Amino acid sequence: MEETWFVVIVTLCINSLIQSVFKLFLLPPLLSTKDKLKKRIRRRLPPGPSALRGLLRLNKPAVSLQTILQELRSKYGPFITLKTGLFSEPEIYVGSHSLAFRALVQNSSVFSDRPRSPDAHSVFTSNQHNINTAFYGSFWRLIRRNLSANILHQSRVKCFSGCRKKVLKSLINRLLNHSINRTSVQAYEEFFYTIFSLVALMCYGENLEEKDFRELEAVHQRIMDGFVGGPFTVLMAWPRLGKFLFRNKWNQLLQVRQHQVDVYMSYIKDRIREKEEGTKSGFTYVDTLLDLEVQEKEQQKRKLTQGEMVSLCSEFLFAGTDMTSTAMQWIMANLVKYPNIQAKVYEEIAAVMGGPPSSSYDNETAMRFVREKDQQRMPYLKAVVLEGLRRHPPMHILLPHSVTEEVVLDGYDLPKNTTVHFLVAEMGRDPKVWEDPMAFKPERFLTGSGEVVFDITGSREIKMMPFGAGRRICPAFNLGILHLEYFIANMIWYFEWRNADGGEIDLTDKHEASVVMKNPLKAHLYPRFKFN
């Protein structure tokens, strides 16, 4: 708390000092022409609080940005300007479906850029050289196209079915152990490790073992711990000056990054050696990065740097794991909270697959699973996943967008390079669009014939956008949904899930790297079969 107020007070003082210097020495030259002055006066931004009031609101201890935005929306509406400092550029927050559609879909090229990242983040993205943070341009198109064509294409996704089955076997056997020993399952830990293992296999190859998963996971967790309530948060509060004001923490951040580079490059070099020796098996994300060539000026091409490859692999692991495992916990929590919905999911699975799977505890080769092609015959399962993403999107606010040129949206002026945020949770819970929006009702996605017909990309209309929309939509949204359906279907087919603590499931959320359960799901599992 003391550190928080220290940051607030020092920020106010420095902002005031900079503002005074600006007014005395820099402002007159900038306003030397009448045209610039008139343009400045005519600019009309969306409504919002004053800079000072916005800064004080944002630095209230124990008050989340989401709570502040809900308060502001009730006063100013779904289109808000918020300044985070006395001298900072205004940022725009959009909570309207129609405005989001007009911006991200109908005017996608203008809204497809990214703002400059804080220096602390840029260290881990090789100066914004990954898909999520790269500026809109040729490099972003190259690395996104590489991922989409070489990893996320339907034919490639099928090639990874063996990896999915491998980690699913491991998960089911771990859950069986909990069930036999009558111990509760820490759901998120199991989900995270399972999805992380799968994505690591897709990234580095099928030869990885448990010790490799644990080593890579430890690197990932060390970075997350640094940014979520850890020593690097103060660097984020000072995006440009933090590395000078808090030199020890900055050096600590650089050490963490170097450790990440050392560990990740050891796996990349293993893949290079396998390729040279002719022992390489399968196809991985690293293979595509090693083959990629970046077009530079004057028709010159270059390979990706080590830092760029590490940043892209890190993004692949983080985006592929955190969002999916977070969404999986929310969905499973609702299936535990509402046993009738869990029963309907099981009934649909059993109708396609037959009765409970036979026991396979001592014979892994005989284990039966719901397969990807079986999922296509399970519309209620798909509706449950969509409802989970609507009601509990892993990110309540999309990664920030930036406009490439001055643009008018809903009668308001957005200057070039303005940062724009889209409020995902607000849109998915809007009572004007969704009846009884806070309820968990998968049936809302089913047609009269019992099928699911819903465009989650928002290409025709945005009702919810857990994966974003437009040119910056998450390229792996289909893979994410496939993973959710695949693992949830098999966990429900094998086990009945009940709350380990008894009573009601607490769906209170907490904002970390993603929006997680404040009280994580703990469950007791009851096999739907008898052991052989």
UniProtKB/TrEMBL annotation:
The lineage of its organism: Eukaryota, Viridiplantae, Streptophyta, Embryophyta, Tracheophyta. InterPro entries: Cyt_P450 (IPR001128), Cyt_P450_CS (IPR017972), Cyt_P450_E_grp-I (IPR002401), Cyt_P450_sf (IPR036396), Plant_metabolite_P450s (IPR051103). One of its GO terms (molecular function) is oxidoreductase activity, acting on paired donors, with incorporation or reduction of molecular oxygen, NAD(P)H as one donor, and incorporation of one atom of oxygen. It comes from the Eukaryota. The gene is CYP89R1. GO terms for cellular component: membrane. It comes from Nothapodytes nimmoniana (Nothapodytes foetida). It is found in: Membrane. The chain crosses the membrane at residues 6-31. Belongs to the cytochrome P450 family. It holds the Pfam family p450. This is Cytochrome P450. Keywords: Heme, Iron, Membrane, Metal-binding, Monooxygenase, Oxidoreductase, Transmembrane, Transmembrane helix. It is a single-pass membrane protein. Heme binds at C474. Its cofactor is heme. SUPFAM superfamilies: Cytochrome P450.
